[in-house]
Amino acid sequence: MKTRDIAVALAIVAAAAACPGAAVASGRFEAGKGQFTLDGKPFTIKAAELHYPRIPRPYWEQRIQMCKALGMNTICLYVFWNAHESEPGKFDFTGQNDLREFVKLCQKNGMKVILRPGPYVCAEWEMGGLPWWLLKDKDIRLREGDPRFLQAVDRFEKEVAAQVGDLTVDKGGPILMVQVENEYGSYGTDKPYVSAIRDMLRKYWGKQTVMFQCDWASNFLNNGLDDLIWTMNFGTGTDIDSQFAELRKARPDSPLMCSEYWSGWFDKWGANHETRPAEAMTAGIDEMLSKGISFSLYMTHGGTNWGHWAGANSPGYAPDVTSYDYDAPINEAGRPTPKYYMLRDVLSRYAEEELPGVPDTIPSAAIPAFALTEAAPLMQNMPDAIVTDRPMPMEELGQGFGSALYRTLIPEEGADSLITEGVHDFAIVSVNGRKAGTIDRRIGQTSLALPATQKGDTLDIFVEATGRINFGRAIKDYKGLTGDVTLSKGGRRIEPQQWETYLYPDDKALFDTYGYMPVTGPDYPAGVYRGTFIVPEEAAGADTFLDFSTWGKGLVYVNGHALGRIWNIGPQQTLYTPGCWLKAGENEISVLDVLGPREPRVQGLAAPILDRVTAGSEDTELDGVPQDAVMAAEYILKYGNGWSELELPEGAKGRYLYIEILSGNSLEESSVAEIHLRDSKGERVGREQWKSLGSDSSNTAENHGVTKAFDQQESTYWESAPGHDYPHLIAVDLGRVTDASAVELLPRTESGAPGSPTHVRIYLR
Ligand code: GLA
């Protein structure tokens, strides 16, 4: 096929655009033979990914100029549906959401734009950009050809096009091309659905707008549509030629583009801060440019997941932190890092003109420690109860974000433990107002031992929601109590029949109506704390990083701006507080802390703390394969990039999978990027329930724990800890007994597949 068809189609479009009488044709962007062209001349896209809602609006232009001074010629951006349509049909494209203004600022600064309007975007953003209210319809099928989903998407895409549809290059604007869906291959295979999204975008953007779809080298053919351009996403360190090998075969004449070249990576609560080496990142860009390959650097400046907008990764549940610094060349506060200067050196070699000077940045300042002097305990500011015969998720009760308290009475028999798989995402359990413990979905907790109870005692389960999953099949992520709750007494199970639910939405205006009293101590209850702090005249306009290391878990608001989530487990301990949202003199702060602070004090630091984990997520150290595990197969593998499929004998099954690695292509560390299991029908088994069972050793100091081998990200990997010899072992709890016909293994995607296993034994138990 088909490349030719595209070329022909584009030629026709180009001819139409050149026609007198057509809309003012001031630019022509095309996918030519082996390269993109702009007005007939070869054009290598050097795009910087930036997300306007993640940047304070007053700083938009500074960030765009930073990208230009870095040597980029384009800004690539997502449009987050849920930020724009908070209620069905109620759109907001103003203030932080002013997409049109952002695109115009790009143009004003001589930058082209690539627009990625989803509807799904992933992006470590709440629910991958989908609005939570879709979940009110319990059996809605997201990202599929469900008319309820498609109708909602249509309304949104129509609105996006109404905002910026007249800003495409052919109409004199900066928008070069528009993306259809996002990495659909990591979700499923469904060309009719992807086609429906394409058709919708065509309807609103017209035939002349160049459209593309992005995916991974390993799966782009599954959903590739003939009339779209195909681009690849991959990260720092990857072997670039191998990433384009399949595309070159399928479409020898296609322009090549890495539509997401990951400069760094995102952080999750309770896991170490992620970084990626600058040398490898810049070498990749250099290589791509030397080969005429276009790219978008994701992220060039990550910014911040303000308020409740951070998403969560899956399999398992790994909520993302507030900072989206991403170890990107331009840090969260808009300043150049050493990576920035290294990259600028590379890009300046490929620039047609001398690069503009690096713009001024916003200074940062410390603010002396101050106390929050008033508190409104949550238990003294309860809303009216909703009475139901089962605990209901928040969405069913009309709430999108925040917390809910579920209350029931201990039955006749009493209870000694509480069992539930349905805590989304963090519960504080108390009996008669005394805290019994917490249940944390992130670490797979599903039960809690209760203190001695008797009939009529009040059991409270206060559930706080963190971000909805933004990746994989688990994006339909209800919040609150989402499943049955069982009490147990001496092994006998009892299900309470009546519940009272009290809703605590994430709503600053509501918090302001609470009854406050002076903070005393020495204990500080869960509640909203508020106070004021003084920004000295000399620090006016400067950014600061408010330090919450003495607080528990919750949300922060400063002068009415929702700064984001805090959680003492780290790695993030400070919140970026932009100077443009502060003023000289008195400023207001409110902190919702669902655990209660250790000390209700805050100070502003001149630099962030993004890398201090206080509660680990280490892998359990295993001594070897347990005696009762059955060896299913043994393989000698060739090393190199790409998947290996290891067939298992008929009848193989088990709940626990052990992969013993007896040797590898590296004498030291062993590594595995991804594992899949095929069931007896040969289908890949869903990995939503998989958990790490442990390893002989894991390099968790550099974030290479076992979960990285089934996080659906080919660019992240499990690695044994330095100084540990073969044999290595990784073990996975599959969540249920599973029939297995094959194990698939993917080594690291870097050239030469470092650490790839060459002799493995597979066991099941
Ligand atoms: C994928 C997605 C992005 C983002 C990155 C990881 O490439 O398309 O939205 O989630 O992964 O940061």
Walk me through what this model shows:
- By secondary structure, the protein is an alpha+beta fold.
- The protein folds into four domains: 29-348, Glycosidases (TIM Barrel); 382-505, Sandwich (Jelly Rolls); 514-605, Jelly Rolls; 630-764.
- The protein has eleven helices and 47 strands.
- It has an eight-stranded parallel β-barrel, surrounded by four helices. A six-stranded antiparallel beta sheet has the order 30-17-31-36-33-34, with no helix packed on it. It has a six-stranded antiparallel beta sheet with strand order 18-29-19-25-22-23, with no helix packed on it.
- Helix 5 (147-164) runs parallel beside helix 6 and helix 9 runs parallel beside helix 10.
- The longest helix is centred in the first third of the chain and has 18 residues, at 147-164.
- The radius of gyration is 27 Å and the shape is globular.
- The relative contact order is 0.10.
- The structure holds alpha-D-galactopyranose (GLA).
- Alpha-D-galactopyranose binds next to loops.
List keywords for this structure.
765 residues, alpha+beta, TIM Barrel, Jelly Rolls, 4 domains, 8-stranded parallel β-barrel, 6-stranded antiparallel sheet, 11 helices, globular, disordered N terminus, binds alpha-D-galactopyranose
Strand content: 25-35%
Strand order of the largest sheet: 4-5-8-9-10-11-12-13
| CATH class call of the largest domain | Alpha Beta
User: CATH superfamily name of the largest domain?
Assistant: Glycosidases
Give the integer mean of the pLDDT values.
93
How many structural domains does the protein architecture include? 4
